[in-house]
Design a protein that fits this description.
alpha/beta, 5-stranded parallel sheet, 9 strands, globular
């Protein structure tokens, strides 16, 4: 078993620990604050998910940006940065530019890195750090930590589960067999709405990173506006959360396969996509722990 597969299987435990850590953590965004969340790659997609979920929870305007594209002229009450390695150049540069101008919180997996001095407050999720280059459990644990902060300070949107309930769904997602129609497909399109769009983006990235797979990701309601043209036999449309009305019929009508676990927490459903990425990588003879052309952190010279 690859190291990535082992790390994927630890996510329910990591999420439960994140809930405990968030319970009395000082420095999380407060209700009413205008917040920006930032990161690179996978961390950016987790930022997107949290930003949409926080705003939908009514706790304040929340934006998400790739760190290299952060709009320096905008005013925020707090900036949250996600960086597993604590060494990502774009994140460190941004935090340096923001120092003294706005309170900053960083989430990291490694406390022995420059991020400890770059942010005003640091949440160390070192129990979720990874040996694999590909991010799985750190990303979802960071999101679980931020979600737990929302639970602590206000009500979640209708239909969104607690992180503790999501961890129960995750246990099933780890063990449930992946359908043959999914593992044997030639193309996968991941879809989401609201906060799950960030998860759809991450699922597509994971498949590309680990397996070199042909994947795309879109907001679910945008899927009909062009992207459905790629769907057909031996191709999958995978929805995170509840399918919009009529979308399943549109997919099956052109020969595609629909995947939707509507009763499962979408973050738990992401685990299925992570597992699929590992299965596909191994079927091609790739090493899912060390994807081609990637390193644990992007450090610019």
């Amino acid at each position: 078993m690859s190291r990535t597969a082992v790390e994927i299987a630890t996510q329910p435990t990591c999420w439960r620990r994140a809930v405990e850590y968030a319970a009395d953590f000082e420095g999380l965004p407060l209700p009413g604050e205008r917040v920006a969340v930032t990161g690179c790659g996978t961390s950016w997609f987790m930022a997107m998910a949290y930003a949409a979920l926080r705003e939908a929870s009514g706790q304040g305007e929340t934006d998400a940006f790739a760190s290299s594209e952060f709009p320096a002229g905008r005013s925020y009450d707090r900036v949250v940065a996600i960086t597993r390695s604590g060494t990502t150049s774009e994140v460190l540069t941004l935090l340096g530019e923001l120092r003294g101008k706005v309170p900053t919180l960083a989430l990291t997996g490694d406390p022995k890195t420059p991020i400890m001095d770059a942010a005003d407050t640091v949440a160390v999720l070192d129990w979720a750090d990874e040996e694999s280059v590909v991010q799985t459990r750190f990303a979802t644990t960071a999101l679980a930590f931020l979600r737990a902060g929302l639970e602590r300070t206000g009500a979640l949107p209708a239909g969104v589960k607690t992180v503790t309930a999501a961890a129960v769904d995750a246990e099933l997602a780890i063990t449930e067999p992946l359908p043959e129609a999914v593992t044997s497909a030639e193309q996968w399109t991941f879809l989401g709405r609201g906060w799950t769009y960030g998860l759809a983006q991450e699922a597509g990235l994971k498949m590309r990173e680990a397996a070199g797979a042909w994947t795309e990701s879109y907001p679910a309601m945008e899927y009909r506006h062009g992207p459905i043209s790629i769907t057909g036999p031996n191709r999958v449309a995978w929805m995170f959360g509840t399918l919009p009305e009529g979308l399943a019929g549109d997919v099956t009508g052109v020969g595609g396969t629909v995947v939707a676990h509507a009763t499962a927490d979408p973050m738990a459903d992401l685990i299925r996509a992570q597992r699929l990425a590992v299965v596909l990588a191994e079927s091609k003879g790739y090493d899912p722990d060390h994807p081609r052309n990637l390193s644990r952190s992007v450090i610019l010279g």
